[in-house]
Write a structure and sequence with these properties.
Number of domains: 1
Strand content: 15-25%
Shape: globular
Strand order of the largest sheet: 1-9-8-7-6-2-3
Distance between the termini: 47 Å
Largest sheet: 7 strands, mixed
Bound molecules: iron/sulfur cluster
Number of strands: 11
Helix content: 25-40%
Length: 344
């Protein structure tokens, strides 16, 4: 058996060793009374007793703002530009103690960014390829979590390289993939005992049972698409929403971005920034026409994309049930209610 034990007192040493091997490590950190997933540069300690982080780990592979390349005018041919890729120095990114729902969310982002062929996103692909995911299972899932509706669970192993279970004094580390096994083999930690494995199994089963009966959102597919699109439901459903975009920025599966050039003199940088379907500018055409002119269309887009279009295109909804949008929406819009109503 390849499972090992990581005593809690040894976490910083463990991370320091991996940092020494060249990993850029991200994990949950306390920030102004909340927990966000951020780079662990050696000065901040990861928090391991938390429900879920406010900011998800998606920025590890899809940063909020990212430089794509720099450009300058070619002085020998003033009608041409010289393009230069922005270099990325690290050998690997390690996600430490993120939640299993967020590990699954990378699989949803992969469907968008890792399309085979010319549409593959090289900026995302480079970071994703070198990534190792250590997920900390949820011994006590939060009331806003509904990962089990979406095919996940508090100890789901989908997208996980090493599964961590909190056993009190330390973490059981169970390798799930060859990548995870390889990482653990190179680190000197005590092996897990049969009683460690048995205790973890009990915690994992109890947490899964505590989630209750799931509701399958894919039933939404039974309703004709055009009927859902034209339903007067959206008129009243969107009214409370203030279109602040919080839900989409915190969501681990939302992937919209906007590309901008910043130019100074004869050189500049092309970058991209997260965008959100909740803002009118996102779809404003240069002509002045906007195909989603009011809040109703924008609200409908968010839920139809997550719950219907993505399901039709990829066979899964674009949600892992992390519950962030439920927790942080300032007007208490709850995607679980929308799923129930759309199913009806
Ligand atoms: S967080 Fe709530 S109010 Fe803000 S855009 Fe999302 S649903 Fe609307
Ligand atoms: S839609 Fe809400 S619950 Fe689903 S993954 Fe995004 S933030 Fe989490």
């Amino acid at each position: 058996m390849d499972a090992k034990m990581l005593p809690k007192a040894d976490v910083s040493g463990f991370l320091g060793e991996l940092r020494g091997k060249g990993y850029e490590i991200w994990g949950p950190v306390e920030v102004d009374g909340a927990v966000d997933t951020m780079p662990l540069d050696g000065t901040a300690s990861p928090v391991t007793e938390y429900w879920n982080s406010r900011v998800s780990p998606k920025a590890m592979v899809f940063p909020q703002s990212e430089r794509m390349f720099v450009f300058s005018v070619d002085r020998s041919r003033p009608d041409a530009f010289i393009l230069k890729e922005v270099e990325e120095p690290c050998i690997g990114r390690l996600a430490f103690a993120i939640r299993p729902c967020d590990a699954r969310a990378f699989g949803i982002l992969d469907k968008v960014f890792l399309v085979q062929g010319a549409w593959q996103d090289p900026y995302y692909a480079r970071k994703r390829e070198s990534m190792v995911v250590m997920a900390l299972g949820c011994n006590s899932p939060c009331t806003s979590c509904f990962c089990h509706w979406t095919g996940g669970g508090p100890f789901s192993r989908e997208g996980v390289d090493i599964m961590m279970t909190d056993l009190g004094e330390g973490f059981l580390l169970e390798p799930v993939t060859d990548k995870g096994r390889e990482l653990l083999q190179g680190i000197d930690l005590p092996g897990a005992s049969p009683s460690n494995l048995e205790e973890a199994k009990g915690l994992q089963d109890a947490a899964t049972a505590a989630m209750g009966e799931p509701l399958d959102p894919s039933h939404i597919r039974k309703r004709p698409l055009l009927e859902m699109f034209g339903d007067s439901y959206w008129e009243r459903a969107h009214e409370a929403c203030i279109k602040c975009g919080t839900c989409t920025y915190l969501c681990p599966t939302c992937s919209c971005f906007d590309i901008q050039d910043e130019v100074r003199g004869q050189c500049g940088v092309r970058g991209r920034n997260w965008d959100t379907c909740m803002f009118p500018l996102t779809t404003l055409h240069a002509s002045g026409h906007n195909p989603r002119p009011t809040g109703k269309e924008r609200f409908r887009q968010r839920f139809m994309h997550k719950l219907r279009y993505f399901l039709d295109d990829f066979g899964t909804i674009m949600c892992v049930g992390c519950g962030r949008c439920v927790q942080f929406c300032p007007v208490n819009i709850d995607i679980r209610e929308i799923i129930r109503e759309l199913r009806g």
